[in-house]
Amino acid sequence: MQRYEIATLNTALGGAAKAAPGIEGFCREGAGRLLGCWATEIGPLNQVLILRGFDTAEDAAKERERTLRAANPFGAAEVLNGMTLDGYAPFPFLPPVEPGEYGPVYEIRTYVLKTGGVEPTIAAWEAAIPARVKYSPLTIAMYALDGAPRFTHIWPFKSLNDRAAVRAQTVTDGVWPPKGGPAWLTTDMRSTIGLPLPISPLR
């Protein structure tokens, strides 16, 4: 897949579960592929995060326009208080996202980069990822195509305790963070824990 998108839906209180059927139907009609759909558990609450993949940049652009012009985007207008669409390109050395059961706890992290930081970050991750994924899988790492220079990475874990243990062990073993990677980070870092909704292909 050449392009990915994360749609962030701000919903009414308790709106995530109500939005799920509409999200599934809306994505089925579009040009992309629904890969993940999570309700936020830790971080900004009352949000649904939707990960979609696209075979081409043209498909992603067409779907962006369809979504923006829709009277009922993601079939969720009834519970929708706001929506943000972020387009991404994958780190080129990574395989496409493959649906499956890897979680059920997913962490979605976004780091804003210093100017010129995209290429050095990709290089640092390419060197470090083979060792890092021996501890736990990586769903995707991708850099933003709009807005501030930044990248988002998504990691599945069996539990919050598993997440803490894996993160601690990789640091202890000197595997993570990628060598040279933190030098390109700003202090603008965000982390969200999401749990898959029943419609999510990533579980």
Please provide a written account of the structure.
- Helix content is 28%, strand content 35%.
- The chain has 203 residues and is α+β, with helices and mostly antiparallel strands.
- It folds into two domains: 3-89, Alpha-Beta Plaits, CATH 3.30.70.100; 105-192, Alpha-Beta Plaits (2-Layer Sandwich), CATH 3.30.70.100.
- Strands 1-3-2-8-5-7-6-4 form an eight-stranded antiparallel β-barrel.
- The mean pLDDT is 98.
Give the gist of this structure.
The protein is of the alpha+beta class and 203 residues long. It has 4 helices and 8 strands. It has 2 domains: 3-89, Alpha-Beta Plaits, CATH 3.30.70.100; 105-192, Alpha-Beta Plaits (2-Layer Sandwich), CATH 3.30.70.100.
